[in-house]
Amino acid sequence: MNKKALLKDIISAARCKLRDEEIELYGKPINHSKIVKNKKTYSRKNYKIKIGE
Fold first, then answer.
1. C-alpha to C-alpha distance for 36 and 17, rounded to whole angstroms
2. Per the structure, how many domains does the chain have?
3. Most buried residue among 17, 39, 41, 53 by CB atoms closer than 10 A?
4. pTM of the predicted model, to two decimals?
């Protein structure tokens, strides 16, 4: 097994372990890449949609 494949396997195992711990802690997987936008903040786009109706 070459060095790249070994490193890839180590990283993959670490990610899998962290994901399992996260699911155990929170009860579901959490998306870290998507930002959740607060619905209560002012949005000019949504304001225009409400006026147009």
1. 25
2. 1
3. 17
4. 0.53
